[in-house]
Write a structure and sequence with these properties.
By secondary structure, the protein is an alpha/beta fold. The protein folds into two domains: 211 residues, Peroxisomal Thiolase, Chain A, domain 1; 127 residues, Peroxisomal Thiolase, Chain A, domain 1, CATH 3.40.47. The protein is 31% helix and 22% strand. Strand 13 and strand 14 form a beta hairpin. Helix 2 packs across helix 5. The protein is globular. It starts with a strand and ends with a strand.
């Protein structure tokens, strides 16, 4: 089977990731309970008349996908695979609100049409005129990993050569209110640098779109090689370290071979203990990084983690603000990512230097 490479990334997030010059070098710190993504200049990518009718998730995805394609030197791809936890949430809220406000009569269908989860993949396909395989995964916080796994299998078996994959989620006012009510969002604002040690329930929520061109052919611009990926719907906390060891062993590695461990800590005192199992155990001598305090928690936030890992392997530099422990690796050849959300949908992703 062929190897799978990340040849480019495109990101719209709460950090300055749309600009190549500022990509993860000028880190923005927040003091909020919800972090919105920084809007790029959409008219540079989408005609204004069309952009006015698009949900934010769609606009972010089109920008991120075009950035990834541009960096890969491609106009089209063989397939588009998207992961999203909540789809175009704002249009969903708008449609449901109109049902109540209009007593289920005289409804405008546009918000419903644009609220479906596969709208993003369809709009990207229309933008680049891609008539190939187009699939959307909606698997909670494993949505992006499911898209990545699909692409990886197709590329390994030479069913495609270049695939555009991405993870996108947006935030909506009513959904934010609901998550605050059930303590999934922190009650009080927390500084980004203090989230990990906040010792309170809930996370700081966010949004974003992160897209990648993955291929079974590498080039001089390739960022990283995707070595392996493993998903679990449920995993007992006492089994996390064991599964990590088994995952590495299956790829002829051990914990000492990992140069950096990228974790999905979000500051939720009830569930960050899963990450502590790795950070304070087998990987205590590896450099550890976190990213959700700086971009927020959302179902496909792990796609930003993959962006971070790929950039680190390419540039051999890690943002010091994302540092969890005091250990700094002299080089980066192997990076392990681990993510879960509220004790479910666990994923291990292994990247190697090209």
């Amino acid at each position: 089977m062929k190897n799978v490479y990340i040849n480019s990334v495109g990101s719209v997030s709460a950090q300055k990731t749309t600009h190549a010059t500022d990509f993860l070098t000028d880190i923005i710190s927040y003091n909020e309970t919800v972090i919105p993504a920084i809007d790029p200049v959409y008219k540079d990518f989408i005609p204004p008349a069309a952009a006015r009718r698009m949900a934010k998730g769609i606009k972010m995805s089109i920008v991120a996908s075009k950035l990834a394609l541009e960096k890969a030197g491609l106009n089209n791809v063989d397939a588009i695979i998207t992961g999203t936890g909540m789809g175009c949430l704002r249009d969903s809220e708008k449609f449901l609100s109109s049902i109540i406000d209009n007593d289920e009569a005289y409804l405008t269908p546009t918000p419903f049409i644009q609220s479906t989860h596969n709208t993003v993949g369809g709009q990207i396909a229309l933008e680049i005129q891609c008539t190939g395989y187009n699939f959307t995964y909606v698997h909670g916080s494993n949505s992006f990993e499911s898209a990545l796994l699909d692409a990886k299998l197709q590329l390994e078996l030479s069913e495609a050569q270049n695939i555009l994959i991405g993870g996108v989620d947006e935030i909506g006012d009513y959904t934010i209110l609901l998550n605050k009510t059930i303590n999934h969002i922190k009650k009080e604002p927390v500084k980004s640098s203090e989230i990990i040690n906040s010792q309170t329930k809930g996370a700081v929520f966010g949004e974003g779109a992160n897209f990648f061109v993955v291929s079974n052919e590498s080039n001089h611009a390739s960022l990283a090689r995707i070595e392996a990926l493993e998903l679990y719907n449920t995993l007992p906390i006492q089994s996390v370290a064991q599964r990590a060891r088994q995952f590495l062993k299956a790829n002829n590695l051990n914990t000492a071979d990992v140069d950096a461990l990228i974790l999905g800590n979000n500051g939720d005192v009830e569930f960050d203990i899963y990450y502590d199992e790795l950070a304070s155990g087998d990987f205590k001598n590896a450099q550890q990084l976190v990213y959700k305090p700086w971009v927020g928690e959302f179902h496909t936030a792990s796609a930003f983690g993959l962006v971070l890992a790929a950039i680190i392997l390419k540039t051999q530099k890690a943002p010091r603000e994302f540092q969890l422990n005091s250990i700094v690796s002299s080089h980066f050849k192997t990076i392990l990512l681990y993510n879960q959300y509220r004790g479910e949908n666990h994923s291990f992703t292994l990247l190697r230097q090209c």
